[in-house]
Design a protein that fits this description.
Elements: H1 3-28, H2 31-57, H3 72-100, H4 108-136, H5 139-168, H6 173-200, H7 207-220, E1 226-235, E2 238-247, H8 253-270, E3 274-282
Parallel strand pairs: 2-3
Antiparallel strand pairs: 1-2
Length: about 300
């Protein structure tokens, strides 16, 4: 399945879980189950926006976007993080109202059953989506998967809390659990927004990817060739590297270009999706960056 297919499936599952969790809240009148249902609404909105951004990111480079549209996926992650903040505020508001006026919980067995079924669906889908996200390095798909995992743990906490209410008779536990749910999803929302901001600001490639790059360059480095000014960045599913390759001044342009081609091919084989830009320089020539006069 393609990334977009997983997101379409996520939309379908989100609609189903909204129906199930809303039913659980309707039958029990539990504010913690209401908070669980509100989070599923965020799942639906996030999956729909993620599908849109993945479609945009897949578009080829054009005149206005010569490097492609890969960063569109970061907008999806940031948008979902903001939605989580909104859902958390709504949950806290409802929980505070219930804390001030506690209400009994009805039809607990039916409500828990509906919640468990929806959580099982979310858990299975999140596991499959996370595997696909790591395979394709899709930020949008990973963000959606992480949120689904959060939803699963949230539901588990809500079910445990409702059982505690039934066993103890402490009605105040229900809104307190809802507030705990809000704090938990706030943490996930902050993580998504932070990672999205890092990607939009041309964050360097991941440490494991940098290790692969270093291994390739070490294989080509010897007395005649050296590399410096190696910089990397990531943009959605793409990875980019810029660097200088120094060689003996007596080499012909054809020989130097052939070695550069070999380095580029080795890098792209080691890191799928990588795009390399290599500037050729004689061994005795150095390039200088961040000169004071360039920063004025």
């Amino acid at each position: 399945m393609q990334v977009s297919s997983y997101l379409k499936l996520s939309i379908a599952v989100a609609v189903t879980t909204i129906v199930l969790k809303t039913g659980a809240w309707w039958f029990t009148d539990s504010v913690s189950l209401l908070s669980d249902a509100l989070e599923s609404l965020v799942n639906l909105a996030g999956a729909m926006f993620a599908l849109t951004m993945v479609t945009v990111a897949a578009q080829p480079p054009d005149e206005d976007h010569p490097y492609g549209h890969h960063k569109a996926e970061y907008f999806s992650s940031g948008f979902e993080g903001v939605l989580i903040f909104v859902a958390a505020i709504a949950i806290v508001w409802a929980a505070v109202q219930r804390l001030m006026a506690p209400q009994p919980i009805d039809k607990v067995g039916l409500g828990i059953a509906l919640s468990v079924v929806s959580s099982a669906m979310n858990g299975a889908l999140a596991w499959a989506m996370m595997r696909k996200a790591r395979e394709h390095r899709s930020m949008a798909l990973e963000a959606d998967a992480r949120h689904l995992f959060t939803d699963v743990w949230t539901s588990a906490g809500v079910v445990a809390g409702i059982l505690a209410v039934v066993l103890t008779g402490w009605l105040w536990l229900d809104p307190v659990i809802a507030i705990a749910v809000a704090l938990n999803i706030l943490r996930e929302g902050a993580t998504l927004v932070w990672r999205s901001a890092g990607g939009l600001m041309d964050q360097a490639v991941e440490p494991d990817v940098r290790d692969e790059i270093e291994k390739v360059l070490d294989g080509f480095s010897h007395q005649s060739i050296r590399f410096d000014h190696v910089t990397t960045r990531r943009a959605g599913q793409r990875r980019f590297i810029d660097m200088h390759m120094h060689m003996p001044p007596g080499w012909s342009l054809g020989r130097a270009a052939a070695v550069r081609t070999s380095v580029e091919q080795a890098l792209m084989s080691a890191v799928p999706g990588l795009r390399a830009t290599i500037q050729l320089l004689p061994m005795d020539v150095e390039a200088h960056f961040d000169d004071v006069k360039d920063l004025v």
